[in-house]
Amino acid sequence: MIGLDTNVIIRYLTQDDKTQSGKANKLIENTLTETQPGFISLISLVEVVWVLESCYDQSKENILDVVQVLLTTRQLLIENAEVAYLALKRFSAGNGDFSDALIAVISEQRGCESIKTFDKKATSFGMTLL
Predict the structure, then answer these.
(1) Using CA atoms, how far apart are residues 40 and 45, in angstroms rounded to an integer?
(2) Taking burial as the number of CB atoms within 10 A of a residue's CB, which of 33, 59, 83, 118 is the most buried?
(3) Residue 88 lies in a domain
(4) Which candidate, 102, 125, 90, 105, places its Cα nearest to that of 44?
(5) Are residues 54 and 115 in the same domain?
(6) Structural domain count of the chain
(7) Do residue 60 and residue 111 come from a single domain?
């Protein structure tokens, strides 16, 4: 297994730097396999969403598609993929950030009776205002 930092994933997705994108393409397309996958941590997944939103002005629909592809690509292994998938479903239906959806899902799975926030948008994911 080979860990993938956010910038490698972003270069692959955006193809915005010829040299780095070429290296990312070679790694992801020619080196990674189902038996030797690339590992994407939840932190990197959150960063990918944030970078696509804030730096590349990608729409929520495009980001949903990208994350879905990352979750279903056989040569990639997403940390706690089932949690990421549940967060993706909430993110698609709510008004907040993907990171908030992920926080809500993880907190609930860990047995939290409530999740407090100051972010009104995060309430769309089941959090309650403090």
Answers:
(1) 7
(2) 83
(3) no
(4) 102
(5) no
(6) 2
(7) no
User: Rg of the chain's alpha carbons, rounded to an integer?
Assistant: 16
The CA-based diameter of the chain, rounded to the nearest angstrom, is 49
Rounded to whole angstroms, the Cα distance separating 123 from 43 reads: 21
Element (H, E) at 116: strand 116-117
Q: Would residue 128 count as lying in a domain?
A: yes
Q: What is the DSSP string of 2-44?
A: EE--HHHHHHHHH--SHHHHHHHHHIIIII--SSSPEEE-HHH
Distances in Å between the Cα of 81 and the Cα atoms of 30, 76, 125 are 23, 10, 18
User: Is the domain of 45 the same as that of 68?
Assistant: yes
Do 27 and 55 share a domain, yes or no? Answer: yes
Strand order in the sheet with 38-40: 2-3, 38-40, 76-78
Q: Is residue 28 part of a domain?
A: yes
Six-digit token string for 114: 């409530």
pLDDT tens, residue order, the chain (130 aa): 999 999 999 999 999 999 999 999 999 999 999 999 999 999 999 999 999 999 999 999 999 999 999 999 999 999 999 999 999 999 999 888 999 999 999 999 999 999 999 999 999 999 999 9
